[in-house]
UniProtKB/TrEMBL annotation:
GO biological process annotation, one example: endosomal vesicle fusion
Gene3D superfamilies attached to this UniProt entry: YVTN repeat-like/Quinoprotein amine dehydrogenase, Zinc/RING finger domain, C3HC4 (zinc finger)
GO cellular component: CORVET complex; early endosome; HOPS complex; late endosome
Coiled coil region boundaries: none
MF GO annotations: zinc ion binding
Keyword ATP-binding annotated: no
InterPro entries cross-referenced by the UniProt entry: Vps41/Vps8, Vps8_central_dom, WD40/YVTN_repeat-like_dom_sf, WD40_repeat_dom_sf, WD40_rpt, Znf_RING, Znf_RING/FYVE/PHD, Znf_RING_Vps8
Organism: Fundulus heteroclitus (Killifish)
Record carries keyword ATP-binding: no
Name of the protein this chain belongs to: VPS8 subunit of CORVET complex
One Pfam family per UniProt: TPR_Vps8
Keyword annotations from UniProtKB, A to Z: Metal-binding, WD repeat, Zinc, Zinc-finger
Biased composition (Low complexity): 72-86, 1207-1218
Length: 1307
């Protein structure tokens, strides 16, 4: 039977996979000789599975790729006790991310089938016990629970069976194994503490060690985190061109690395390296090579970690391996379990003897099998991905091999170039496979979008890696020839080239591909993309005639310019072609389309680039052609006629076209060019020639606007103002332009001409003008900004004020100008004084312009001239507006308190306000305090402003005078109302609306009087109150008498309602009998019938009944609340106390320190107990008092709340202060001391007890009190009925006051 390709020895496999490139070891050198008399067990095991190969490596990942989900990364269970086929181990596969490195399958986990079979046979047939430990060196040794050690060679053949079941019965299970460095001795440790040494050459027992530690005992205590298992692992690692040992120490989820370094002097240093943090607890730690570790976490997940980058390369699930744990040994069940709890907890996750590493391989022991792990070589890792059809990931991994960024690389030898060549060949092979696979897997039927998406996921990958490998011939010749068989793939390929061409990663395309690209982009309308591609390609790869034809027909002007420039070094023909298109339209004055504007802008940019030595649209012109191109462009621009000129064509057509298209931008192009040609004599000549042509074309030409002509001379002035200027311009031309701008035939474009002239002056052109003539022309043309410019130069700032006032467009800016000039330090005091005089002269005009801004200006800069300004204003309306802004507080304005004013301006404002805005009088009187009271009263009396006068009289103290004024106003309005009702009988809607408005005025006046009476009745006696309320009542009742008999019931009802309101309000200050007596004595009602006043009397009686019931209910509620509060307060003070513990919280001794001694104890409401003496020593009293009445505080609670001082503690009392401090005696005592044995309530200080009890009471009571509810109840009327009872408060179910409203008045 031929040997399987995977049937290799363990060490030969390790020699191929180890990064350290260990030399191959001959298997014969490590053949273990047979013993003379083979044991029965060996002969039995040797007969098992004879027909099978001795060593079969099963790559579980490859065998089961068809059954694996591409995104599967989780397992259902991690219990190692479950049985299962190891061939179905689940491998984690993370989804590919563009920014995440692809590692593929790094680790090969294989079943040691021969060893696993023989372990199972030994367990089942000869009762060898379950496997408990494994070790690998030159051989593999497995210990069992019955004390046997099975030794296998590298071909998985059983060579030795050491020990017997008798040994196991005596020593227990094998708990640890170790092989020396030359593989000649085997040490076996047992669960009961014994150690045996075996000769691996002949299988003889050399020594039994029984005194390693006391028999029958185990380690008693390990001070460690019981949730983590400590791990140690050594490895020689190349560090800084030296190989040094590194110790990896792991505890919990952190791996520490310690570098051990020896100096030349012999000193040894231990250097701490960077830590590795994981999100799981590690139970096993092994090096598999100098850069990679294999970690197993508590969930039986195996992690391959790259130490330098600390990146997890791969994660495997070891669930079905069924790891062997050392729990029984750590719990020391064989010796009675005499171990610490910490060690027993650690043992739940201990698997020290289940994994063993040697020469780049790790063996793993399960309950029924053994596995071996090793790193795959680079080809295997790629093949694993290819077998799973993950071509993109395979290419990414291969490129990381090529660039040297991959982790855990095995099998790549030689120098860098040789390695790259090998990997490049492999990548080419993968690219071919990927292409064939994509074409084969393409859906033949279905939506076109599905096919496009399929190839969009594949084609860019092919292009990207071909360009990375610099194999464009492979891309365009071999791969493209396969893709063209599918039209969708071909289109996706051609469209994907754009991004690489624009990014300058692809500069040359073969002719067939370029032809297909032109056709595809043209047929699909992708002309912008085509243009972007052309301007980045090498012109040698283009069919120039074909490309130019396509580009010109589709208006791809950038591409046309690029081909002519780069392909033929022709920089003039593109300009001629563009001018031939845009020139006629511009010269004929036709409106330009969007495409025309784009073409003209491209032309300007192209000319600018050529004159600046830059290529269009990208790059630079070759240095040897820069001067030549610049001269050619100048010659082109100054041509007298174009090539296809007609008789109607103007001279210098190209300059004409550019000036008409965009004068400003063309002049900007020339300005940038003139700055770069200062040292070029030929260019300077061209520069002067162009300036002469511009003057010849534009001056005295009606086709150009003033803005265009002014722009030309502004451009010339800037050029001539430069220190190294060489241009010559006739000075008369500037005078001619001045005449043109200031003396036009019509008055059109006034602002444009002024702005142009201003720009011309600002660049220095003023030196070429006669200033007097310029000023005369500017004034004539009303160019006030020009005048301002000239005044500014002469420091005549007061004249500038006139300029602002005369300029209708800038009048509003005068205030900012004056403020800035007066505030800035750059002006002299004389100049500011001149401006101040000018402002005072134009004060009338400034007030009419904006009184608010003028007031701010006066507050800031004219505080001393306020009186003169006020006296100088003749228009009363303007004066009123100015004073309102100046004296009344305005939001955002300066306060008038900055003004040193007396009362006269405020009284003047009051007088003007009475005339123009009397409705604002009260507001002004309330906010202003600067007027004199007597004068203000006289002013309001003069203009009959009764309400304002009443306010002032009340402020003066004349309450009756103020009341008389308000009453007079009310009577006047009632008279007007009666008159309107008398004349409005049978009137329409207008009369009804007027009546409602008058009634509303009456109501407002009445409310104002009621508020006035309420406000002043607090400070006067009963008789004086009657003098206020009775005239008001008489007035309202008299008004009802006047309207009796009129048809307007709405007005009549309104007056009755207002009369009731007066009665309701006055009842709070005047007794009801007095009110009734006054009504009965009134001559209006005295001669009438009782029925006429029945409504008033019944209303007052109902009010009395309502208030009496309300008072009784309120008293009842308050008594109930008081009883409830006192009951709870007494309960809180007298409740019993239960101590938390039976010892003093200060001395920590039992409250009865001596059985026969009497000692007083204090218990607080917080549950803390103290001896009285301890509290006295700690000075825990609230203040000075006798011993029996001393108010104590809890020492522990007061200390925890910060501070022990009496004052601070009293201010911050906590709930631990005693509500009832109980003293009682401990121990037995004579009868004479009986008073000390009984519980006695200490007389606590009143303030402490009450305040603490009140806090407790407040905590018990939730929600608003009834008193707060009743306080919100006030007299009023509901919206539906007229009466004296307000609606019930919402949400107050406990409020049981139910009163019927008083009856309505009957007519």
């Amino acid at each position: 039977m031929s040997q399987s390709p995977d049937s290799r020895s363990l060490l030969s496999a390790s020699s191929q996979l180890n990064l350290m490139e260990v030399e191959s070891i001959d298997d014969k050198e490590f053949d273990i000789p047979q013993v003379d008399t083979p044991p029965t067990l060996e002969s039995i095991l040797s007969q098992m599975e004879e027909e099978e190969d001795p060593f079969v490596l099963e790559d579980t990942c490859i065998l089961n790729t068809d059954n694996m989900d591409a995104q599967s990364c989780d397992t259902s269970s991690l219990a190692s006790s479950d049985s299962g086929d190891p061939a179905h181990l689940k491998r984690k596969r993370r989804p590919l991310d563009q920014n995440t490195a692809v590692h593929g399958s790094v680790l090969r986990l294989s079943l040691l089938k021969g060893i696993s079979t023989q372990i199972a046979a030994a367990t089942d047939k000869v009762d060898a016990g379950l496997p408990t430990a494994i070790i690998m060196s030159g051989v593999i040794a497995v210990g069992t629970s019955h004390g046997l050690a099975l030794v296998f060679d590298t071909n998985q053949a059983l060579r030795l069976c050491l020990g017997s079941k008798t040994t196991g019965a005596e020593f227990g299970a094998v708990s640890a194994l170790s092989i020396n460095h030359d593989c000649s001795r085997l040490l076996c440790g047992f669960a009961k503490g014994q150690i045996t040494m075996w000769d691996l050459a002949n299988g003889k027992l050399l020594r039994t060690i029984t005194d390693a530690h006391p028999p029958g005992t185990a380690i008693l205590h390990v001070k460690s985190d019981p949730t983590s298992v400590p791990q140690l692992a050594w490895q020689f690692v190349p560090v800084q061109k030296m190989v040094n040992p590194i110790l990896a120490f792991c505890k919990g989820d952190t791996v520490h690395f310690l570098l051990v370094k020896k100096e030349e002097t012999g000193t040894i240093h231990v250097i701490k390296q960077r830590q590795l943090h994981l999100s799981c607890d590690i139970i096993s730690l092994n090096w598999i090579n100098s850069c990679s570790l294999v970690l197993v976490d508590s969930h039986e997940k195996l992690h391959v970690v790259d130490r330098p980058s600390q990146e997890v390369l791969e994660t495997l699930d070891l669930e079905q391996v069924q790891l062997v744990y050392n729990s029984r040994h750590f719990k020391s069940l064989a010796t009675g379990g005499n171990v610490s709890q910490a060690l027993a907890l650690v043992g739940e996750k201990a698997c020290y003897q289940s994994l063993s590493s040697y020469a780049g391989q790790i063996v793993c022991l399960g309950t029924k099998s053994a596995h071996i792990m090793s790193l795959r070589n680079w080809k295997e890792r790629l093949d694993c991905l290819l077998k799973q059809e993950h071509f993109t990931e395979a290419l990414s991994l291969a490129w990381s091999f090529h660039e040297g960024t991959a982790k855990a690389v095995v099998g790549l030898h030689g120098d860098s170039q040789k390695r790259k060549a090998v990997i490049s060949d492999k990548m080419v092979e993968i690219l071919f496979q990927f292409t064939e696979y994509s074409l084969k897997k393409c859906p033949e039927q279905g939506k076109l979008q599905v096919m496009e998406q399929h190839f969009q996921d594949m084609v860019p990958v092919l292009v990207d890696y071909c360009l990375l490998l610099q194999k464009a011939d492979l891309l365009f010749n071999q791969l493209y020839s396969r893709l063209v068989e599918n039209m969708v793939a071909k289109g996706v390929f051609l469209e994907s080239l754009e991004s690489y061409i624009v990014a300058n990663r692809l500069g040359h395309i073969t002719t067939p591909v370029m032809k297909d690209l032109l056709a595809h982009y043209h047929d699909n309308g992708m002309m912008d993309s085509l243009e972007r591609c052309i301007v980045h390609l090498d012109v040698t790869s283009l069919d120039i005639q074909q490309v130019v034809h396509v580009c010109w027909n589709n208006q791809l002007y950038d591409a046309v310019i690029y081909i002519f420039n780069r392909g033929m070094n022709d920089y003039i023909t593109p300009m001629e072609k563009l001018f031939s298109v845009i020139g006629p339209r511009v010269r004929e004055g036709r409106s330009l389309t969007g495409d025309d504007v784009v073409m003209g802008n491209k032309l300007l940019v192209y000319i600018s680039c050529c004159l600046a030595g830059r290529a269009y649209p990208i790059g630079d012109i070759p240095e040897d052609l820069v001067v030549q191109v610049k001269n050619q462009v100048f010659e082109f621009l100054i041509r007298l006629h174009s090539g296809d000129s007609s008789q109607k064509e103007e001279v210098f057509p190209f300059i004409h076209t550019l000036l008409h298209f965009d004068t400003r931008e063309f002049l900007n192009v020339l300005a940038m060019t003139f700055d770069d040609v200062q040292n070029d004599k030929q260019a300077l000549e061209y520069q002067q020639r162009i300036v002469d042509i511009l003057l010849q074309v534009m001056v005295d030409n009606p086709d150009f606007t003033p803005s265009q002509v002014g722009g030309l001379f502004t451009f010339l002035a800037r050029q001539m103002a430069k220190p190294n200027n060489t241009l010559f311009v006739n000075r008369n031309l500037f005078d001619q332009v001045l005449e043109f701008l200031c003396c036009p035939d019509d008055d059109s474009r006034h602002a444009e001409r002024q702005q142009v002239l201003l720009e011309l002056l600002q660049v220095g052109g003023v030196v070429q003008f006669n200033e007097e003539r310029l000023f005369t022309l500017a004034e004539k043309a009303k160019f006030y900004q020009i005048c301002e410019f000239l005044y500014e130069k002469k420091h005549l700032y007061d004249r500038i004020v006139d300029c602002y006032l005369q300029d209708p467009l800038r009048k509003s800016e005068i205030f900012s100008y004056i403020h800035n000039l007066m505030s800035m330090p750059g002006y002299s005091s004389e100049e500011k004084l001149q401006v101040k005089h000018k402002v005072l002269q134009h004060m009338q005009e400034l007030v009419s312009l904006d009184p608010g801004k003028l007031a701010d200006l006066v507050v800031w800069h004219f505080t001393d001239e306020v009186q003169s300004i006020i006296s100088g204003l003749q228009d009363d309306r303007l004066l009123f507006q100015f004073l309102c802004c100046l004296l009344e507080p305005q939001e955002g304005s300066q306060p008038a308190s900055r003004l040193p004013l007396e009362s006269e301006p405020y009284e003047l404002l009051l007088d003007l306000m009475c005339r123009f805005e009397p409705q604002e009088l009260l507001k002004f009187l309330h906010t202003s305090q600067h007027y004199r009271l007597e004068e203000a009263i006289q002013i309001t009396e003069k203009y009959h402003c009764n309400e304002a006068k009443a306010y002032l009289l009340e402020k003066k103290g004349d309450i009756h005078g103020a009341f008389a004024g308000l009453l007079q106003t009310l009577k006047e309005r009632l008279h007007v109302l009666a008159a309107e009702m008398g004349h409005g009988v049978g009137g329409g809607d207008e009369e009804e609306a007027d009546g409602d408005l008058t009634l509303m005025r009456v109501k407002n006046s009445l409310n104002q009087m009621i508020v006035f009476c309420h406000r002043n009745c607090q400070n006067i006696d009963q008789e004086q109150r009657k003098d206020l309320w009775f005239p008001l009542l008489d007035t309202m009742m008299a008004s009802q008498k006047e309207v009796t008999g009129l048809r307007d019931k709405h007005i009549s009802d309104g007056l009755k309602e207002m009369t009731l309101n007066v009665l309701n309000c006055m009842s709070s200050f005047i007794s009801l009998p007095a009110v009734i007596q006054h009504i009965l004595q009134d001559p209006v009602y005295g001669r009438g019938k009782l029925a006429e006043i029945q409504g008033l009397i019944l209303g007052m009686l109902d009010t009395f009944t309502y208030e009496q019931t309300l008072l009784e209910t309120t008293t009842s509620l308050l008594n109930h609340d008081l009883h409830w509060s006192l009951a709870n307060l007494r309960s809180a003070v007298t409740r019993g106390l239960h101590p938390r513990q039976d010892c003093c919280n200060i001395c920590l001794q039992h409250y009865k320190r001596k059985q026969d001694a009497s000692e007083e104890i204090i218990v607080f409401s917080c549950g803390h107990l103290y001896h009285l003496q301890c509290l006295q020593q700690k000075d825990c009293g609230w203040g000075p008092a006798s011993e029996l009445q001393q108010p104590w505080r809890c020492y522990k609670c007061s200390s925890s709340h910060g501070g022990r001082g009496g004052a601070s503690a009293e201010a911050n009392r906590s709930r631990s202060a005693s509500l009832a401090q109980t003293r009682f005696s401990s121990g037995h005592h004579e009868k004479g001391a009986e008073t000390h044995r009984k519980k006695v309530l200490a007389a606590a200080a009143l303030d402490v007890q009450q305040e603490l009890s009140w806090d407790h009471l407040r905590g018990l009571y939730r929600g608003p009190s009834r008193l707060s509810i009743l306080s919100e109840v006030s007299h009023g009327q509901s919206s539906e009925k007229t009466g004296f009872l307000i609606p019930a408060q919402p949400g107050t179910e406990s409020f049981h006051l139910k009163l019927a409203p008083p009856p309505l008045f009957e007519e």
